[in-house]
Design brief:
single chain; 449 residues; alpha/beta; GMP Synthetase, Chain A, domain 3; Rossmann fold; Helicase, Ruva Protein, domain 3; 4 domains; five-stranded parallel sheet; three-stranded mixed sheet; 20 helices; 53% helix; globular; binds adenosine-5'-triphosphate; ATP binding; DNA-binding; ATP-binding; lipid-binding; Chromosome_initiator_DnaA_CS
């Protein structure tokens, strides 16, 4: 991280917190940042940075999920300063991403909370999202009538939110009076909690049930939240029965969302469930070109290809890499070509190379499946050992340039046909078994591929 503020800038807690926010914005999604971190207030007391949360719900959420990230970022920025999270004395302002309940659907300018940039026009279509895009277009033309609910699922940063909001924007374009609302599932929970706190739960129900289209993002965060699920169940029924459109996104298939009531799981499957798969090279390249054009940059195709080839995880990373290249070119005043792209992404590529070494793949896979590193080479054949070993072989084949005999050798002197068999087996299992596919994709992500 390059943005270390001068020590004088850190004298008061506000400045330190502001500097920390710059880092955190890079390390979280916009939604996470706006919903959970932006509402915090920072005060520096000696060597202790105290962060005050506006309410207990926000405080607990941060404690459970963001504390490690906050502490690590603070340690990078101001080593030695300790972090303490407290409840603010007074109820703080409502987070920017979650306007006060009364604002929902009533502000004609942005009551719907849609990002106008998330349109079909700026969404690149490829093999990985073809079906999802076709379904989304259909829904935008006949909301409430074609597929209800439309359930879009897929891994992190693959374009679920963008596509869902494209539908919302298209509905509004056709009918400016339509009551459309985009809300993250965390936003829905916050909204509900606030209504409960203020005894306005009936208003909450009315607001949500009057909508023409409800777009609810990342529904996996409903897991285990019984009161929220209960409330959403009734909202869902009211909208569905009234022929209003519901669009849901999630990181997995409905039946695979843990601790989600069965009645919700089954309702989510009533309409159409479509997946967005990780994008292939051509689609990634088209996305890079599209994003470059949006930024007013005439990017040579070879540079777009280079970025798409090196960054294989998800679109947010692709965007990050492109931003780096643009910043580097602006700063050095050099032209856009392979050399400048390589210079701009050197750190990233170096990290990636270290991550995808044969040794590291074995280590990461062993840790992921909780087996011993030495089991990668051992003769043990029990499934809980053999399967991770096959996964590691398959990843090594996919991510490195080692030959099959070299891979076999590194996995306890096995024959190259064993490696080939492992790769085929894992490919097959990934198609048949979503858990295996998810594990494999998680590992690719951990390995930075
Ligand atoms: N097919 C695409 N064409 C153009 N841009 C895309 C495409 N897919 C994703 N993006 C861009 O990638 C970024 C991340 O996309 P988005 O937030 O929609 O992903 P997501 O699947 O909802 O992620 P998360 O799982 O974190 O909620 C956005 O800036 C979006 O515009």
């Amino acid at each position: 991280m390059s943005s270390h503020p001068a020590p004088s800038a850190l004298h008061n807690g506000g400045a330190l917190w502001a500097a920390l926010c710059v880092q955190l914005q890079e390390r979280t999604t916009a939604q996470q940042f706006n919903t959970w971190l932006r509402p915090l207030r920072g005060e520096l007391h000696g060597n202790e940075l105290r962060l005050f949360a506006p309410n207990a719900f926000v405080m607990e959420w941060i404690r459970e999920r963001l504390m490690d990230l906050l502490e690590a970022s603070l340690a990078d920025l101001a080593p030695g300063v300790i972090l303490r999270l407290d409840l603010g004395e007074e109820e703080g302002p409502v987070p920017a991403a979650v306007p006060p309940a009364t604002a929902i659907g009533t502000d004609p300018r942005n009551g719907h909370r849609l990002n106008p940039g998330f349109s079909f026009g700026s969404y690149v279509e490829g093999k990985s999202n073809q079906l999802a895009v076709a379904a989304a277009r259909q829904v935008s033309e006949h909301p409430g009538k074609s597929y209800n609910p439309l359930y879009i699922y897929g891994g992190v940063g693959l374009g679920k939110t963008h596509l869902m909001q494209a539908v919302g924007n298209a509905i509004l374009q056709r009918n400016n009076d339509a009551k459309v609302l985009y809300v993250s599932s965390e936003g829905f929970i916050m909204d509900m909690v606030r209504s409960l706190q203020h005894n306005t739960i009936n208003d909450f129900k009315q607001r949500y049930r009057k909508l023409d289209a409800l777009l609810i993002d990342d529904i996996q965060f409903f897991a285990g939240k019984d009161r929220t699920q209960e409330e959403f169940f009734h909202t869902f029924n009211a909208l569905f029965d009234g022929g209003r459109q519901i669009i849901i996104t999630c990181d997995r298939y409905p039946k695979e969302v843990d601790r989600l009531e069965e009645r919700l799981q089954s309702r989510f499957g009533w309409g159409l469930t479509v997946a967005i798969q990780p994008h292939d090279l051509e689609t990634r390249m088209a996305i890079v070109l599209c994003k470059a054009e949006e930024s007013g940059v005439d990017l040579p195709e070879e540079v777009a290809f280079f970025i798409a080839e090196k960054i294989r995880s998800h679109v947010r990373e692709l965007e990050g890499a492109l931003r780096r290249v643009i910043a580097h070119v602006n700063f050095t005043r050099k032209p856009y070509n392979l050399d400048t792209a390589r210079e701009a992404l050197r750190d990233l590529i170096d990290v990636q190379k270290r991550m995808v070494s044969l040794d590291n793949i074995q280590k990461v896979v062993a840790e992921y499946f909780h087996i011993r590193g030495s089991d990668m080479q051992s003769k043990r054949r029990s499934r809980n050992i053999a399967r991770p070993r096959q996964v590691a072989m398959c990843l090594t084949k996919e991510l490195t340039s080692h030959s099959l005999p070299e891979i076999g050798e590194a996995f306890g002197g096995r024959d190259h046909t064993t490696v080939l068999h492992a790769c085929r087996q894992i490919d097959k299992l990934r198609q048949e078994n979503t858990q295996m596919d998810e594990d494999y994709r998680n590992l690719l992500r951990i390995l930075g591929a």
